Amino acid sequence: MMRLFSLLLIILALAFLLSPRFRQWLRARAPIFILGAIAVVAIVLAISGRLNWIFAAISAALPVIWRLAPLLRFLPLVARLTGRRRGKQGDETDTDGQRPASRNGRMTREEAGELLGVEADADREEVLAAHRRLMQRLHPDRGGTDYLAARLNEARDVLLGGRR
Description:
The protein is mainly α. It contains eight helices and no strands.
């Protein structure tokens, strides 16, 4: 009786695994399963003493790195918004040929235009459209920071001259 039950269980499992719906679900999540399997194998090997602990730590960090990888596309934008640039701070231009951030803490029209991706003399609608587009991506409710949102708002206010 136990053999019959085991055989029935194996047949049901195979039917489930070979179904198109399960295969589609698995195909969408395959990278996560692969990284998880690598992590489990690495942990088992590390516990058994057959894997160096450094490789185990790297393998354990892979799922976190995988989840954070899409955020890498925001790095140039974050660097531009925070004003961090390569080169010396002073009256010289940076290595990329742009002026350094203003020293008195106030944003210039040129910096505001660069931040929003518009010309310094852009019209009201263009400034508002650029501000809206960037805020949709960088608002704190959508994963951005308060600082970035404040910089975008400051750039909008500088370009609009206090009028909205």
